[in-house]
């Protein structure tokens, strides 16, 4: 995980329409569809929209989806380390951003893959509404940014589709999102809990596809539903 993220602006989520989320609504543009891919091929123009808090204000920026980037005379360049995902958060490589430069990625769909035998199976996972992923970012010269989406240990519901890591879904709770983005909060018990307890917050409809771009479904297996961990507890 995670090599494809989608925002379907035609979808709406009741939770995001609640007054408590008013600060975040401007960052989900209704009516626009966007897809994002990591900066493979060392292309700094492969960006993803992230939400950060900078100088006390929420803002959305377009960040190269590859954390290991550096400034050159010609602009931002992509490094050699494969860093579109941030997994081992105990590593010093991630420490500064984990404490000081956390970000949000709003999405409605993601792509996962798994090698089955010698065949790579690709799965498109779509929610009926908006969900949010945790990310880390760096700021470079001339207001350029790079970032990585956080992943955690594998999750039982995700293992049939990707058994090595799990996207760091964040709770759709404005109080938590405020803590996550707070510039003065280097560490917090709620952040620690979310990172240490990977949770599937959205319900995802899963379909094996030929490609993420066209989403042409494979005939088998049939579509499945990954029920939100929170919803499952209510049943």
Could you walk me through the main structural features you see in this protein, from its secondary elements to its overall organization?
The protein is mainly beta. The protein has one domain (4-234): Alpha-Beta Complex (hypothetical protein yedk fold), CATH 3.90.1680. It has 4 helices and 14 strands. Strands 1, 2, 3, 4, 7, 8, 9, 10, 11, 12, 13 and 14 form a 12-stranded mixed beta sheet that branches. Strands 5-6 form a two-stranded antiparallel ribbon. The relative contact order is 0.17. The mean pLDDT is 91.
Give structural attributes.
235 residues; mainly beta; hypothetical protein yedk fold; twelve-stranded mixed sheet; SRAP-like; DNA-binding; SRAP; covalent protein-dna linkage
């Amino acid at each position: 995980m995670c090599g494809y993220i989608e925002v379907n602006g035609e979808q709406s989520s009741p939770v995001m329409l609640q007054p408590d989320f008013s600060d975040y609504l401007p960052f989900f543009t209704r009516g626009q569809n966007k897809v994002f891919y990591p900066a493979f091929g060392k292309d700094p123009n492969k960006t993803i929209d992230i939400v950060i808090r900078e100088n006390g204000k929420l803002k959305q920026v377009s960040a190269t989806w590859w954390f290991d980037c550096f400034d050159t005379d010609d602009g931002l360049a992509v490094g050699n380390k494969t860093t579109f995902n941030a997994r081992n958060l105990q590593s010093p490589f991630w420490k500064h951003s984990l404490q000081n430069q956390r970000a949000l990625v709003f999405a409605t769909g993601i792509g996962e893959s798994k090698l089955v035998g010698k065949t790579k199976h690709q799965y498109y996972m779509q929610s009926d509404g908006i969900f949010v992923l945790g990310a880390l970012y760096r700021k470079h010269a001339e207001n350029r940014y790079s970032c990585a989406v956080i992943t955690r240990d594998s999750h039982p519901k995700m293992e049939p589709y990707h058994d090595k890591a799990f996207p760091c879904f964040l709770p759709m709770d404005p109080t938590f999102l405020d803590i996550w983005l707070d510039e003065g909060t280097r560490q917090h018990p709620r952040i620690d809990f979310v990172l240490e307890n990977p949770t599937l917050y959205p319900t995802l409809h899963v379909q094996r596809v030929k490609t993420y771009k066209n989403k042409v479904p494979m005939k088998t297996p049939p579509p499945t539903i990954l029920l939100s961990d929170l919803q499952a507890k209510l049943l």
